[in-house]
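User: Need the bound-state model for guanosine-5'-triphosphate:
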Amino acid sequence: MSIDGNPVLEFTRRSMPHPPKLVPSLALVIPTLREAATLPAVLGRAIAALSAVAIPWEIVVVDDNSGDGTAEIVSRIASADSRVRLLVRRSRGLSGAILYGWRHTSAAILGVMDADLQHPPELLPRLLDQVLAGRDIAIASRYAEGGGLGAWNPWRRFISFSSLRLTWPLLPPSVRPRDPLSGFFLVRRPSIERVAFRTTGFKLLLEILVRGRARNISEVPFIFGERASGRSKAGAGVALDYFHLLAGLYARKMGLLRATEIGGRRTEITEGVSV
Ligand SMILES: Nc1nc2c(ncn2[C@@H]2O[C@H](COP(=O)(O)OP(=O)(O)OP(=O)(O)O)[C@@H](O)[C@H]2O)c(=O)[nH]1
Ligand SMILES: [Mg+2]
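Assistant: Bound-state model below.
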């Protein structure tokens, strides 16, 4: 496989006895649910930021059938720039959309960034530098020194910090970043390959940190932006799902579940999706 004429590293291609030396590539997933208003700016800024990086890359927009013109906008941009791709699903769920995009690329470095401009695309080269320097995961971090929560009110800050605090017992200090709930990060494919992750919910990074194989992590600070347009998808359902995820991860830690079970329900073994 190639991106933009350049070969990409395929870790799953084990049948090749002597694979040629290939350069790694990056696939950045941008999940969208009714984000037509900000998408042109997000894609423009992401393309500009990535144009400076030294490895092949692609942007994969995974849209859950928004029906607000998102697909048309991306198709138009993709027809002029082969580094941009659109995938449309008929299901819902942020983590599932990210995993779906990662499953549809053979890139060695996988990433995710929101579509509402709360994640500055200009941070991408710095995140990529961390992975190219040998980190398994590079996290755009609101809680690292120099980062911040922007204009969040005290209540949202309290909820965010309390949610974060609940993750500490799940993570050994060596893989305990300051912001394990960030939605903006890059990960090396081998750190997550063949681990089945939940497809619902918003906190895929936490599950990757707890259940994946990453051993060294770095954080790049950033200030969480204001939603530029459109409406938040993070409602009460997202909070409930977070507690469901935490319950499953704690139960697994305490040996109450088989290692392959997550979320406290055996059926989730088949619902989980791996890369
Ligand atoms: N494909 C897909 N994308 C989703 C889904 N839910 C949310 N998203 C996208 O995931 C990103 C994060 O969602 P947001 O609503 O911005 O969540 P948030 O940033 O925690 O909340 P706000 O601060 O209120 O914006 C955005 O790009 C959404 O469009 C989903 O079910 N499917
Ligand atoms: Mg947002």
